[in-house]
């Protein structure tokens, strides 16, 4: 195991947690230790410090009939300690909509909790960290989209799901990292506007060359923007010199040069599935060009020997949510922790999501 991973979080000072018996703490810390499956970083002693929090959160969830969903980039104590479902933003919004519970707690960044509210407007969506943003969604406003539409009248606008509800409401269709190529190709006309991710936009320009002109915006994911093609080439060279064959897997939010150097490109769920498949086929040297949470999930979910080489990058926005925030918002959410959106915005944003379902089929 050669990857540099961030340290596990410690309990925030000042949070009062219920007292549990030694037996309960022992059983819960064993459960966490085995599920997280990173025995050197998440030791039994560390798991013991978080056990009172996970015990109380799980108890409160039952009492209040709350469905707790967490994005893959959340920390392992949240994912394996308290989440009822873990995935990417889009499938989590569908899970929020389909859940029988009327209260959903969405452990992630703000735009994802908003997306859950758009698809389930009658449910209460709790978002424990109202200030957890995203460089992509915060980098574009509804006014910016209106200005693009003014400059290019009649040209369809596709927005990546990493956008606020207001931005989605201004667009014709919403897309995800797994369907943006297919959907944009199907849009009417020979031109389209793609916002806000310039790297996905450039990838789209390359893929649709000769078929459609793609007008792009200047947004980027600050996590995936850090990786470069040169770093991958250097790693491959060093590994090859040792006789090691490296498989590189990247997220499409990376620069086109990174994607060209990669063996597999896909959404977080694709990267997890493909890496586990590789390990089952005996290919154990992988490099994951994405956020560290994806690596945590792979390490927890594979039973095979795996060398994750290089360094992942942590999203500071995703890591803003701690178990203490979840506990506090479950006990007594503040008004900022409950997602409220204007009815008209919900209606218009929902249309862009529905158009995505239609064109993705
Ligand atoms: S990883 Fe990038 S796209 Fe995802 S929330 Fe963080 S900044 Fe936004």
Description:
- 45% of the residues lie in helices and 13% in strands.
- The chain has 361 residues and is an alpha/beta fold.
- Strands 2-1-3-4 form a four-stranded parallel sheet, sandwiched between helices. Strands 6-5-7-8 form a four-stranded parallel sheet, with helices on both faces. The protein has a four-stranded parallel sheet with strand order 10-9-11-12.
- The chain has three domains: 130 residues, 3-Layer(aba) Sandwich (Rossmann fold), CATH 3.40.50.10800; 85 residues, NadA-like (Rossmann fold); 85 residues, 3-Layer(aba) Sandwich (Rossmann fold), CATH 3.40.50.
- The radius of gyration is 21 Å and the shape is flat.
- The structure holds iron/sulfur cluster.
- Iron/sulfur cluster binds next to loops.
CATH H-level superfamily title of the largest domain: NadA-like
Backbone CA Rg: 21 Å
Overall average residue pLDDT: 93
CATH class assignment of the largest domain: Alpha Beta
Listing every helix as H and every strand as E from the N terminus to the C terminus, the arrangement reads HHEHEHEHEHEHEHEHEHEHEHEHEHH
Shape: flat
How much helix, percentage-wise, in residues? Answer: 40-55%
Per DSSP, what share of the residues sits in E-state strands of 2 or more residues? 5-15%
Instruction: Compute the separation of the termini in Å.
Output: 40 Å
Biggest sheet overview: 4 strands, parallel
Hetero compounds: iron/sulfur cluster
Write down how many β-strands occur, each being a DSSP E stretch of 2 or more residues: 12
CATH topology type of the largest domain: Rossmann fold
Strand order of the main beta sheet, please?
Answer: 2-1-3-4
Structural class: alpha/beta
Low-confidence stretches: none
Integer count of domains: 3
Q: Count the helices. How many?
A: 15
Going by CATH, the architecture of the largest domain would be 3-Layer(aba) Sandwich
